[in-house]
Amino acid sequence: MQKIQTLGVHHITLTGADRQSSIDFWEGVLGMPFIFDQSNLDDPDEGHLYFDPGDGRLITIFTNENRKRVHNRTPMDPGCVHHLAFEVDRAMFDQVPARLEARGIGHSGVKDRGFMHSIYFKDPLGLLIELACYTFIPPRGSSHAEVMLEAHKLRVAAGDDHIQRQHLADAVVKIVERGQASLSDDRGAKNPY
């Protein structure tokens, strides 16, 4: 038996409202360029809109002119999607509450998750959307996932309940020391004063 190795998210497809509401939300609110449009190849009564969330991958939306906007929460039964999270940088994150409020879109306010800050709100059909901003930058050649794995190990070793800023900072130090050679024999912390 062998694993099937994934290489990343290829695309995510959601059931959307009508065509214009979908474009207005995904491009008009979240700024995702609308890059491709065709019919749903499995249901010619539906459109299939493609958006770039910022990393060159795809968010696709099935649309139907008979589906209108609702503001109820989508089901959270086992097996259902709870929410989708999209990354924004710090400068944009700080603007998100005001930009949502300017449209009359209710939101959760800023939630500090230790390793990231989050804001939650609903799409036109009630799907919970999260905009997230990491509280750290991974070292060059590393990834957020690598820092999170190292920070998790440090958190568990310390007996802490959740990842905190200290775990992230120490994880970055470990990754840099592991991945970048130095002429020094001793790379430990020093006090030159």
From TrEMBL:
State what protein this is by name.
Answer: VOC family protein
Residues annotated as domain VOC: 8-134
Q: Which PROSITE patterns match?
A: VOC
Query: Which InterPro entries does this chain map to?
Result: Extradiol_RC_dioxygenase (IPR052537), Glyas_Bleomycin-R_OHBP_Dase (IPR029068), Glyas_Fos-R_dOase_dom (IPR004360), VOC_core (IPR037523)
What species was this sequence derived from? Answer: Sulfitobacter faviae
User: What PANTHER family does the entry give?
Assistant: RING-CLEAVING DIOXYGENASE MHQA-RELATED (PTHR36110:SF4), RING-CLEAVING DIOXYGENASE MHQE-RELATED (PTHR36110)
Q: Which Pfam families match?
A: Glyoxalase
